[in-house]
Amino acid sequence: GQPPKQPEIVIEEYRYAKLDKNDLIFETKADKLRDIGVDLEDLRDPLLARFKTDDVRRLEIQAGAQSLVFVKFKEDDKDKEKGREKWRLEKPKQEVESAAVEELLEKLAGLRASDRDVLDDVDPKTVGLAKPAALIKITLEEADKSAKKPADAKVEKKTRQIVLHLGHKEKEKDKVYVRVEGWSRVNQLGD
Q1: H or E stretch covering 41
Q2: pLDDT > 70? residue 162
Q3: Helix, strand, or coil here: 103?
Q4: What's the gap between Cα 71 and its chain centre?
Q5: I need a labelling partner for 51 at 20 to 30 A (CA). Which of 59, 83, 109, 179 fits?
Q6: 3-class state of residue 126 by DSSP
Q7: Cis bond leading into 124, ω under 30°?
Q8: CB-based contact 138:101 (threshold 8 Å)
C-alpha cells in the first residue's frame, strides 16, 4: 500500500485593529485588507465637470476677441409653466438651432480625462493656460437639495457656474488642455 496522504496545511494570517475612542479590538484576515485599499486613480472622477444639460440656462464662449452668448428661454411667454424651452443667441442677437446648442452641451458634459491625460503638477504657461485661448462659461440652475421644504412646495433652485479654460501648446495643435476654474488639475484632451 501507499502511505497515508498528509493533511494540507493552511496558514491564515490575521491582523488586529482598533477604532479611535473605542475599546473593542477587531480581528480580520490579512488577505481581506487588500479589498479595502483602493488605488487613487480609481477614486478620481474622469468627468471634467458634472452637470445635467437640462439645468443649463446660459452658455458663453469666448475665443480671443470673439464672444458668443446663448440663453435658454421659454418659447411661449404667456404660459411660463408649459412653454417649451429654446436657445437663442443673445450676443450677437440671432436665432439659433436649439439642437446644435444641446449637442454642444452634451459634448461638454461628456468630456473625460483619466490616467496619463490628467496632469496634476503642470505649469499653466507650458500648456497655454496662463492666457487661455478660449473660455467656456456654463451657468446652471439646479434643484437645491440642501433646502428643507414641505413635499408640496415648489422646488428651490440655486445657480452654479462652471468655467472651462482652454489652452494648447504651440507645437501640439491636436491637443487641448482644459482646466476647470477652481481646480488645479489640468486635463489633456485629444490624441
Answers
A1: helix 40-43
A2: yes
A3: helix
A4: 22
A5: 83
A6: helix
A7: no
A8: no
User: Cβ distance 46 to 112 under 8 Å?
Assistant: yes
Q: What is the tens place of the pLDDT at every residue in 80-113?
A: 555 678 999 998 788 889 899 999 999 999 999 8
Residue count (the chain): 191
Distance (Å, whole) CA 191 – CA 111? 14
Distance between CA atoms of residues 32 and 52, nearest Å = 38
- For residue 142, the tally of other CB atoms under 10 A from its CB is 17
Q: Are 15 and 7 in contact (CB under 8 A)?
A: no
96: Cβ contacts below 8 Å, ≥ 6 apart: 70, 87, 88, 89
Helix (H, G, I), strand (E, B) or coil at 67: strand
pLDDT-derived band at 149 (thresholds 50, 70, 90) equals: low
Q: What is each CA distance from 139 to 8, 30, 164, 185, in whole angstroms?
A: 66, 49, 12, 21
- Which residues 6+ apart lie within 8 Å of 110 measured at CB? 47
C-alpha cell at 6: 498528509
Q: How far apart (Å, rounded) are the C-alpha atoms in residues 164 and 156?
A: 26
Strands 157-167 and 175-180: antiparallel
